[in-house]
Specification:
By secondary structure, the protein is of the alpha+beta class. It contains 15 helices and twelve strands. It folds into two domains: 200 residues, no CATH class; 147 residues, no CATH class. It is elongated, with a radius of gyration of 31 Å.
Length: 413
């Protein structure tokens, strides 16, 4: 053990240290670090939680990457059929990191009731459809059974559409779907509401209803092997660009790929701004915490001026004495980090478990409950970064020790 660390340890354990004039200021500095780390952890957890929630909701309706014919021209409606007998379906083995692939088809229509009507986008799904996200969205009833041998008229509709159309669970309604030749009589289908979902994402809730894909195939006069497009889900959303390029390179040349980030750029550009806010908050809080620690360090130095004079008279170098106080300050920062982590992690866990904090305007953030998500490495990086940056900020004020002369310091005692 070097002697600087030994002296710093003795100072920390000394009773006079805990009851000295500087004790109150030191406690304030520790509290500032603790509060700062709590605020930074909450900022990261809520920012990333909101990003992840929005990403998952957009992907639930579209998949991470869509494979379709070039002729569809980015239309929300399936125009040209695509043969489902592809080498990459139903198992996409040529590219790693793919969790699931499913075939879907969409068709625009109108829901008509006795009192009103609403435009709708009927999304046809089959037995391979991944319902995991909609299990979380499900508000009433159950999910449609689309795995039977025959097509059924069960439909999953949003709470938004149900309110607008004054429909409830168990009701039936008629929908009209235009044919390619608009002069012909539209296709009419009767559906029964077996489930009502609410994703909180009004862009999709306002028009998407999920039906058996065989309805779309029959109305479009497709055979059972023809679908509108494929939706691909990845293990890691951050790899969406690379995986999109890989998928494009292995599929037939007549097919195109489109990621959700390129399909809805305005959404992902908006949530990317959360990163800027997070870094800005972290930067401001670290600066404030560093200033508090600078104040505490200066008070410690003034409180221990006689000790500094004695150590200098005994031959200690300025840097050696500065290290004593830097060790002391690092200890105080560590205490603040400890309590900050305990409180911060507890707050994030409570919010994630019970969701007691909610947005006053959920329609703007596409979710009612404030979501949280934080990784272990985020916590470690935040702690290490705060400790290192605060200690570095203390190097300059600790330079005041070099200006203290032994004679004046001992007289000061």
């Amino acid at each position: 053990m070097n002697y600087e660390f030994f002296i710093a340890k003795r100072i920390i354990k000394a009773k006079q240290y805990k009851s000295s004039v500087s004790a109150t200021i030191i406690k304030i500095a520790i509290a500032a670090i603790a509060i700062g780390i709590v605020m930074m952890m909450v900022a990261i957890a809520t920012g990333m939680g909101l990003q992840k929630t929005i990403q998952e909701k957009v992907a639930a309706f579209n998949g991470h990457i869509q494979i379709s014919n070039f002729d569809n021209n980015d239309s929300e409606v399936s125009l040209m059929p695509l043969d489902s007998k592809q080498a990459f379906y139903p198992e996409f083995t040529d590219v790693s990191g793919i969790k699931h692939i499913q075939a879907v088809a969409t068709k625009a229509g109108i829901i008509r009731t006795e009192k009103t009507f609403e435009g709708v986008l009927a999304k046809g799904v089959g037995a391979d459809y991944n319902w995991d996200a909609f299990k979380d969205f499900l508000k009433e009833g159950r999910l449609p059974d689309v795995a039977g041998k025959r097509e059924n008229r069960e439909v999953l509709i949003s709470a938004y559409l149900a309110r607008r159309l004054e429909l409830k669970l168990g009701d039936t309604f008629k929908s009209l779907f235009l044919k390619e030749n608009t002069s012909e009589i539209p296709n009419e289908r009767t559906f029964e509401i077996v489930g009502i979902y609410e994703s909180g994402f009004q862009k999709f809730d306002a028009n998407v209803m999920l039906v058996d894909i065989r309805h779309i195939q029959r109305m479009n006069k497709w055979n059972a092997d023809q679908v509108g497009n494929f939706e691909v889900f990845l293990d890691d959303f951050d790899m969406i660009q690379d995986k999109g390029d890989e998928i494009y390179s292995v599929i037939p040349p007549n097919l195109d790929t489109q990621s959700v980030t390129s399909k809805f750029p305005f959404i992902f550009e908006w949530i990317s701004l959360f990163d800027v806010n997070i870094f800005l908050i972290i930067g401001i809080i670290i600066i404030v915490g560093g200033i508090n620690m600078i104040t505490a360090l200066l008070v410690l130095i003034l409180d221990r001026t006689p000790m500094i004079g004695i150590l200098k008279s005994l031959g200690s170098s300025d840097w050696s004495i500065r290290k004593i106080f830097l060790y002391n300050a690092a200890y105080l920062i560590a205490i603040g980090l400890f309590w900050g982590n305990v409180i911060g992690i507890s707050c994030i866990w409570l919010q994630r478990t019970f969701g007691f904090l909610k947005f006053p305007n959920p329609e703007q953030y596409h979710t009612a409950i404030i979501p949280t998500h934080i990784e272990v490495w985020h916590i470690l990086a935040l702690n290490v970064g705060t400790l290192v940056l605060c200690v570095l900020m203390l190097l300059i004020p600790s330079y005041i020790i070099t200006k203290i002369t032994p004679v004046k310091a001992i007289k000061f005692q």
